[in-house]
Amino acid sequence: MIKKLVLAVIAALIFAVMTGCTTDYKKNDIEEFVSQELHLADFTVSDTYEEFEGDDGYTDRIWTVTDNHSSIAFHVIDDYHWGMESMTNYLWTDYSESVLYNIAENLNGSEILKFDCTSDENGIFSSKISCSYKNKNELATCAAELKKLQDELEALGYPDLNVEYQVMFEHPLRNVTNYVIDDGDFFGRICDEIIYDDMLNEYITTLMDYRYDDMYLLSDEEILAALDEYPYIVGKYSGSQTDRKLYEEELIEYYHNIIANKYSYGISFGSLYEILKTEGFDVQGDFWHYTYSFNGDVYEISYDFNDKVFDDFQGNNGYYYLKNGEEIPMDYYFYNHFSVKKIKELTGLTLLYY
After folding, report:
1. Where residue 56 falls among pLDDT bands split at 50, 70, 90?
2. How far, in Å, CA of 354 to CA of 349, rounded?
């Protein structure tokens, strides 16, 4: 009898853990959610839900809702997933994605903005807005077109669509390897304020990181604004300390307009070229492809050295440099930036960035 009781308690505990803090949402809960979250006044919720297996393997529930004013159908998803210690669930909706899916073809829009609107096998909608640019003028056009789209959506009665947009910088190294280098991209929501200056700062710091030629078309004011809160300015330490925390500030000299990567990848091939020139190395070539010597070794570095096969990374092609003609792979296949430790080895310079 005691054994059966213990087993029953254990079973109850297992059930409690597996079910966790879940809520069994009813139709009236879905109605309340739609009313409060979307501020719709006239809509109809399906009498029952459908079940489907989510990407995480758990069984989710999907309710169909129709906006009676526009006749646009969308969904409220009762999403079950594993929380910190037990099962939990929450509600979310594809309302904004469904609206854009249904009205995209009728928007005035432009050839600049692209709408990627789909629905999956369960009918759940997915929508995204994108715009590509190659220079500052095209970036300004992207920002202006996004603002026009906001005005049009507001005029149609949809000022708060929570749909993601991506402004993509089509720079020369974006798609060179199997990894998309999306530096210079800007992500936002079409329901939020479109701030061109924030996009411009992303563009400028990417130009400066890789040392693309267009950076020399920027004004001093634009560069200063972009670097105002940029944390990764590159400097050289001339002291004897080996612990970064002990570097004497008076022995650190920061380079003019040379920065490290915003994702902490390090100092780019192009930026290292500028540093070598500044430090008096005999550098042959330009920021894209150059050679120099140090401690009797000849180094050749180029953004074009990107076709080495990295077996450790599913055979992806990626970057390397040459030391006395030998290919030296980068630490990771899509890296075209050096760590300060590596630069010490390659140049003898003790660099740092914040």
Report:
1. confident
2. 17
Using pLDDT thresholds of 50, 70 and 90, give the confidence band for residue 16: very low
| CA distances to 107, 140, 150, 156 from 145, in Å | 12, 9, 9, 17
- DSSP assignment, residue 325? T
Q: How sure is the predictor about 20, in pLDDT bands with cuts at 50, 70 and 90?
A: low
Q: Which two tokens stand for residue 171?
A: 């720079």
The H or E element spanning position 198 is helix 196-210
Picking from 167, 78, 93, the residue whose alpha carbon sits closest to that of residue 126 is 93
Helix, strand, coil share of the chain (percent; to 5)? 35, 30, 35
Burial class (CB in 10 A: 0-12, 13-18, 19+), 260: buried
pLDDT digits (tens, 9 = 90+) for 179-200: 999 999 999 999 999 999 999 9
As a whole number, mean pLDDT of residues 106-133 equals: 92
> Measured between alpha carbons, how far is 344 from 242 in angstroms, rounded to an integer?
12
Residue with tokens 């309340």: 32
Q: Average pLDDT for residues 290-313, to the nearest whole number? A: 96
Range 2-29 burial, b when 16+ CB lie within 10 A, else e: eeeeeeeeeeeeeeeeeebeeeebeeeb
Query: Of 153, 33, 146, 143, whose CA–CA distance to 100 is shortest?
Result: 153
Please, are residues 134 and 170 in contact by the beta-carbon 8 Å criterion?
Answer: yes
Q: Using alpha carbons, list the distances in angstroms from residue 238 to 249, 273, 346.
A: 10, 19, 16
Task: Say if CB 246 and CB 317 are below 8 A apart.
Answer: no
Q: Is 179 exposed, middle or buried, given 0-12, 13-18 or 19+ CB atoms closer than 10 A?
A: middle
For residues 15 and 4, give the distance between their C-alpha atoms in angstroms, rounded to a whole number: 16
State pTM to two decimals: 0.88
Entry field: residues in the chain:
354
**Of all residues in the chain, what percent carry a pLDDT higher than 90?**
87
The rounded distance, in Å, linking the Cα atoms of 153 and 145 is: 12
* 184 CB neighbour count, 10 Å cutoff: 24
